[in-house]
Write a structure and sequence with these properties.
Distance between the termini: 41 Å
Oligomer: single chain
Order of helices and strands: HEEEEEEHHEEEEEH
Number of helices: 4
Largest sheet: 11 strands, mixed
Number of domains: 2
Length: about 200
Amino acid sequence: MTFFTADEIARFNSGEPIRGAFLCEMDFASQKMGAWNGSTKLTVNGTEFLPLFGAGQIDGLSFQNSTVSKNITITVAGVKNDILGLALASAAEVQNRLVTIYWQLFDDAWQPIAAPPAIFFGYMQSPEVTQDEVTQDQNGNSPTQTISVPAENIWFNRSRAPGGRYTDRDQQLRSPGDKIFDFAPGLVFKTFYYPDF
């Protein structure tokens, strides 16, 4: 299996310049937002990705073929005080909300080519804010503040027992009144005949 179609691979082999960038799509409680390290707004698959002008960073991102719980950290440096207050007040907007990282290809003029494959799905955790040790420089500039949003991949809660099994009791925790697993114990040694004439 490959991320790319035969037409895209042929374009790679054509010798034309191909550029690439990560797109970060965050599904906050109130709205879906996107960001990337470019210098212009970008719309891909109906989502607008705001430019971070190189201030964004993703730590811990790697390609995996396993069901191991891993985490990444999305960081934006150089944040002003007003944004800092919004980030601290928005923990409920972020906690356990979906984040998706895409790998977008561009032509030489930074126009998107091909559909971006998703290379990471995960759940955001509460944002953390740090500040450098400089209090204020001689020009009156405030210290640099950094917002970091950790995100766990989709396997982070797979070992949680409550509500995690295919039993009627756990299904009632997830969806009260749903009877899909009500008769599951009676199906253990049941024989099914197909076709049934």
